[in-house]
Amino acid sequence: xxxxxxxxxxxxxxxxxxxxxxxxxxxxxxxxxxxxxxxxxxxxxxxxxxxxxxxxxxxxxxxxxxxxxxxxxxxxxxxxxxxxxxxxxxxxxxxxxxxxxxxxxxxxxxxxxxxxxxxxxxxxxxxxxxxxxxxxxxxxxxxxxxxxxxxxxxxxxxxxxxxxxxxxxxxxxxxxxxxxxxxxxxxxxxxxxxxxxxxxxxxxxxxxxxxxxxxxxxxxxxxxxxxxxxxxxxxxxxxxxxxxxxxxxxxxxxxxxxxxxxxxxxxxxxxxxxxxxxxxxxxxxxxxxxxxxxxxxxxxxxxxxxxxxxxxxxxxxxxxxxxxxxxxxxxxxxxxxxxxxxxxxxxxxxxxxxxxxxx
Length: 359
Known about the structure:
Shape: elongated
Distance between the termini: 42 Å
Strand order of the largest sheet: 1-2-3-6-15-14-11
Number of helices: 6
Number of strands: 24
Helix content: 25-40%
Order of helices and strands: EEEEEEEEEEEEEEEEEEHHEEEEEHHEHH
Largest sheet: 7 strands, antiparallel
Structural class: alpha+beta
Radius of gyration: 27 Å
């Protein structure tokens, strides 16, 4: 691929294979400079004469955007679904800004055309923003951290948030060009390599495994006919106690099936018969006793609030198949685990199909 830049009196123009790809307009209060790196990566530095605590670095595409991505946030503006999520790139005419910790890479935005794709990001705490103007994407890197005109919490939107930074004179962004549809892949790989840090564990794998097994057994609860792992501990002001509500969940936060399978592995690895006993007890209870009035496999068990949901069913199916396979390896017959796994797969399919119909 051939990547070039030409400077005029008013802007910097980038060309991919001799075709205009992007432009950056010159500003009177700053100085932009560019360093070209291997792999069609451009390091973009913006310097100001005086220190400032606000900055917006803006790049405009020269091609019509066919696909646009804000990694981990928005894919072609999220046209599907009715749940709480960002729809479109603007709210009441104001482009959304996404905090550095909300996107897969700080400030990341991606646009893809027929013959060119490009990605823009930062390597520090810049927020990212993108909007469409005359069918072409405009990418922004914004300081300080900004989530505007509103930002998404788990179940609702909140008013805008604007943080603070220490005033400075230099801000940096990265631009990734491609004549294929893979500028976002280039960005991910490059930033990953820049920030990779090899860490060495302070504890041995065996020690960590032993601690994990010990913790799982602390969560283990035998209450009447119930054999399950409590969802976790909470601090009551004096000591750590098991949670009293929404206590048992087969996947998701409770991870009962996964913890039980781990105990089956512990038996095979370390000959721990107590692990085998508790692992089988939990799996037996979920597959045989934790059932709805209609006989369906429950995913969360609580006398006051038992339910079945698609996310938990997916985890249950995978873990129950593995539980069946591990039991076969150690000579324990538990065909009901495989049957329950198939039940969960069928239930999940029906729930997912119903959700698609709702959309």
